[in-house]
C-alpha cells in the first residue's frame, strides 16, 4: 500500500526527516510514536503533500506509484487521507457542503459523475450516526467554534465519507476525553478492512488500546530507530522516551 | 482635440437651446454648469479623490451626445437581465430610451422615463419637490450630471404600494461612437409604507471607451423599504462614476448592495441622509477585480436623528495590478443620540502588486452612541488551502471556495433568489471555476 524509501525532508534550512523507511501493507495498522519534535507531524504532512516541506531525497509510493510530485488533491484522489492534528477553521463553508465539494471534486477527477443528492444525504446520515454526530452540527461552518473533541470527530467523519485507502491519523487522540476517544476509535475500527491501511501517529500509548496496531515504530530525530509489535508501545509507556533518547 | 471640460461647456449651450428656458429647471441647470465650470473634473489633489485619477480616461475624445438611435436585438442582451423572472425594465441604449427592450408601467406605480417626468405637466409638482433636492450641489461631477440631466429612470411607488416585481434599470452602450460619455439621471421615490426592489446595471457591448457619470436620487419615505442592487461587471474599457444619494424618513429601511467585478475605473459615491428616527441603512459590497482595474467606494452615512442604525459591510478581493479604495465616513450629529453605526471592510490581496487603500472615518458629535469599525487586509489562508486540498478539492476550486465563503455574508443578504444565483454564477466565472457554491 504505502512504501517510503530513504525519505529526507526539510523545512527552510532545517532538516527534519533524515532517511525514513516504512512499508505498510493493505489491512495493516501501523503506529508511529516518538517524543515531541521527532518529526511525526512532518512525516504525515510530507505524505499528504504539504508544499512547505521540501523532499530532498527518497521516495513515497502508493500502491507502487511514486506520488512524490503530486499535489495534495491528487494524493487525496489516489486515496490518501490525513486527519489533522489541528483541523483548520473555514468560516462560511458548512460541514455538509465541504463534504459534498470534496466528494464531487474527487469523483470529477476520476471521470465519474457527481453523486446524486439523495445518495449523498444517505451517506451523510449513515456516517454521522457512526460518529454520533448531531445533524445540526453538519450545517455549521467547518470547524469554526468546534471544541477539540468535535474537531477530531469531524475529521474521522470526513474520513468515513471519503473512504480512503490510506488514512493517517495525526495525534487524533490529543484533546479527546475518554468518551470521545472511544467514539473516534470505534469509527476508525469500523472503517478498517483488508483493502485499506491506517497509520496512527501518537505521542501516547492510550489510543492504541482502542485502535490496536500490528506494528509500532519509534521515530526519533527524523529516523525510525525501533520497530516492533504492539508490545513496543507498552514498553515505551513504561520506560518513557528517555529510554530511546539514551540509546540514540 | 478640445479638452473634455471645454467640450462639455460648449455643448451645454447647444443643449440649452433645445430645452425650455422658461422652466424652473433652467435655473437649476445653469447653476450646476457654473459649479462644474469652477470646479472642473476632480483630481488627486482633492482628499476625496486621492487614490483615483480620471486623467487618463478624460483624454478620450468622448462624444457627449449620441449621434444616432441604436437598436439591439433582445437576444444579444438577454443575458444581462435577470430573465428567469418577470421584471419591469427601463432600458437605455447609448443614453437613449429603448421602448423595445423596456417594460414600463403606470398601473399602480410609475416605472418610466426621466425625460417624461422632467417635461410633462403632471409630474411638475413631484419634480419640484424632489429633483436635485438630495444630490450634493457642491460636487462637481454631480453638477455636471445635473446640467445635462435629461434621461434616466423615473420610479414612483405610491403610499402603501408593494411593487409586484423587481425593477431593472439597464444602460447599454453599443460602441457605435468611438468614445461615449453618458450622464444618466435617475429619480426614485418610495412612498410611505411602500416597498420596492431595484437592480441597476451598466453594460458596454464592445471595447470602445465609455464614461458614465450617473446620478441617482432615492427618497425613502416613512416606513418604506427600498432594496437597491448595483451590478458592475462591465468590460475593461468602461468607466463609471456612480453618485447615489438616499434620503430616508423615519422607520424606513434602505439597502444598497454593490457588486463590482469589472470595468476599468469604477467609483461609487454612496450617500445616506437620515431625516427621521428609527431608520435603518444597509450598505454592502463585494469587489472582485484583477488586471489594472480600480474600484473606489466612497460612502457617507449622515446620522442626523436619534435611534437610527447603519450597517456597512464591504468585502474586497484584489488580484493582478488592481487597486481598491474604501473610504467610509460615518457622521453622527449632536442630536443623533443612541445611534448604532457599524462598519466593516475586509480585504484579501491575491497578488504582490495589488493595492488596497482603506480609510474609515468616524466623526461623532453625540455622546451616547454605539459606533464601531473594523478593517482587515490579508492574504489567502495557506493552511486552509492545504486542508481543503488534502480532502481532494483542487487548488483552484479550494481558492474559489475560500473566496466565496469570504464574500458569503454579503451574498446571503440578497433578497431576490434569482439575483443571488446570478451573482454566484458571476463570481464562479470570475474565479474561473465551474462550481455551484451551494453553501
TrEMBL record, chain A:
PROSITE patterns xrefs: ABC_TRANSPORTER_2, PUA
Keywords linked to the UniProt accession: ATP-binding, Nucleotide-binding
Residue span(s) of domain ABC transporter: 2-246
Protein origin, superkingdom: Bacteria
Signal peptide (from-to): none
Keyword Nucleotide-binding: yes
Alphabetized InterPro entries for the sequence: AAA+_ATPase, ABC_transporter-like_ATP-bd, FeS-cluster_ATPase_SufC, P-loop_NTPase
Family to which the UniProt record says this protein belongs: Belongs to the ABC transporter superfamily. Ycf16 family.
NCBIfam families reported for this sequence: sufC
Protein name stated in the entry: Fe-S cluster assembly ATPase SufC
Originating gene: sufC
